[in-house]
Amino acid sequence: MKRFNTLAIIFMMCFTVGNAFGQDKVSSENYEVFGVDFSQIEKTEKSSTLYQNIQLKDTVKTQLVGEIREVCQSKGCWMKVNLSGDDEVFVKFKDYGFFVPLDAAGKKVVMNGKAFVEELSVNEQKHYAMDKGTSKEEIEKITSPKKTLRFEADGVLIKK
After folding, report:
1. H/E segment holding residue 131
2. What is d(CA 108, CA 130) in angstroms, rounded to the nearest whole number?
């Protein structure tokens, strides 16, 4: 009985936390779907507060909402998304399984997947800078690894 009560309390806490973030219905009429289709947003984070508690090597399965700031101009294989304030998350797509349109910058996005913090190597930073079309001089200024907010999306909804 004690175990049942404990499980009931944990369930209630999870339900309450989920409702605190709001549950919005997303209609595919208003969004273009890339990757896994998900129509019900559960526990959607509307800011980067999620990342304040994540350490290197931690992952959190969640959904995030933001505005696309930048998209890989080679294939659409990554994007940078503004969450809230000045916080930006770097997004890649699970198993390189889908791409987003090259002209998606400025649109609202809902992402389903895993949030984590990663240290980005110098070589990877330079690769992404080249994808972006950064000048050779700017690329040469990249000399040390940096921590980045990351997200691996298995599904993305982009506002039409």
Report:
1. helix 122-132
2. 25
Question: 40: helix, coil or strand?
Answer: strand
Residue with tokens 């947003």: 41
For residue range 21-56, list pLDDT tens digits in order: 444 455 567 899 999 988 666 556 655 678 888 888
Residues of the chain with pLDDT > 90: what percent? 52
Across the range 5-28, mean pLDDT stands at: 43
If you count DSSP H runs as helices and E runs as strands, how many of each does the chain have, helices first? 3, 7
Contact status, residue 118 vs residue 147, Cβ threshold 8 Å: yes
Q: Which residue has the tokens 């390189």?
A: 96
Residue 36 CA to its chain's centroid (Å):
14
